[in-house]
């Protein structure tokens, strides 16, 4: 459906998008995910024709649209601020694109009403935008884009102005609408949870570059870089020193544990630093003090599972889960557990923190993934 090949977009001397290539399949919902200022909205605006690329090509259904103006690209865009006409009713806002296409008044009214009904605000057809809630205005903006039946729908953080509860509800509804209509969508967001909820595939951007593309589960479980690992959720980064170089390196953690990392030693040398990522959901806690006391054997090297004695610093209730802050010889760590597992732990308790070496992710000091 969509092919972006080697696109670079600049604002004067600033390179906002640097040699980005991606493809989006027919009927797919593709999310561009990244921090503010990474270039994701510029990619969307370049696809839409609002920005001119310095180099590269854009095709929809095999047709090169790179030099075409926005209204000749058969795509529609929903902006972050929804951009509704304040002096027009919801129905008139939705029908506006059809009017520009020359559709007669009766047909455009019928199609606009159908689009409003589809997004469940049909009863608000005669309301002005300032009479609608934020969620209703977002639905009207979505209906306006859908009613012109675009080949490609582009959405630039359309839910970011909604409160959390409504935003999460609209994510589910938007995904349902996309599946029913089989509309191809490119969706820009900085919210990892939103991308995971919506995306068939996602692309992570940083500093104008597309650094990884894949389905959400694969990108989360198999990040290519420390940036991707850090951006896609909370984790514990522990810098470890290489103390022996064998087929697989032996690492020394700052809290006194040595373990064999299941990665290729490759060009590693003694005293190199490997940063180990320990996702909180992949860590186990055993509150038994006697287990913690014998968790580390002097001079031993863990191979399959690492066990570290820790002190509980504090417990923080986070809805249905508890974040437990730990200290292992002045190294701060944290674990997330269900409420029922964390309520008996208090500051000062001794626990054993355990993880499988295969469940950790390893990065070189440069940020590249170690395999």
From TrEMBL:
Stated family: Belongs to the ABC transporter superfamily. Sulfate/tungstate importer (TC 3.A.1.6) family.
Keyword terms of this UniProt record: ATP-binding, Molybdenum, Nucleotide-binding, Transport
Topology with respect to the bilayer: Peripheral membrane protein
UniProt xrefs under SUPFAM superfamilies: MOP-like, P-loop containing nucleoside triphosphate hydrolases
Keyword Iron-sulfur among UniProt keywords: no
Domain annotation ABC transporter: ranges: 2-232
InterPro entries to which the protein is assigned, alphabetical: AAA+_ATPase (IPR003593), ABC_SmlMolc_Importer (IPR050093), ABC_transporter-like_ATP-bd (IPR003439), ABC_transporter-like_CS (IPR017871), Mo/tungstate-bd_C_term_dom (IPR008995), NA-bd_OB-fold (IPR012340), P-loop_NTPase (IPR027417), Transp-assoc_OB_typ2 (IPR013611)
E.C. number: 7.3.2.6
Annotated Gene3D superfamilies: 2.40.50.100, Nucleic acid-binding proteins, P-loop containing nucleotide triphosphate hydrolases
Enzyme category, top tier: translocase
Location within or outside the cell: Cell membrane
One Pfam family in the UniProt entry: TOBE_2
Described function: Part of the ABC transporter complex WtpABC involved in molybdate/tungstate import. Responsible for energy coupling to the transport system.
GO CC annotations on file: ATP-binding cassette (ABC) transporter complex
Main location: membrane
Substrates-to-products reaction catalysed: tungstate(in) + ATP + H2O = tungstate(out) + ADP + phosphate + H(+)
GO molecular function, one term: ATP binding
Subunit note: The complex is composed of two ATP-binding proteins (WtpC), two transmembrane proteins (WtpB) and a solute-binding protein (WtpA).
Protein name: Molybdate/tungstate import ATP-binding protein WtpC
Keyword Phosphoprotein attributed: no
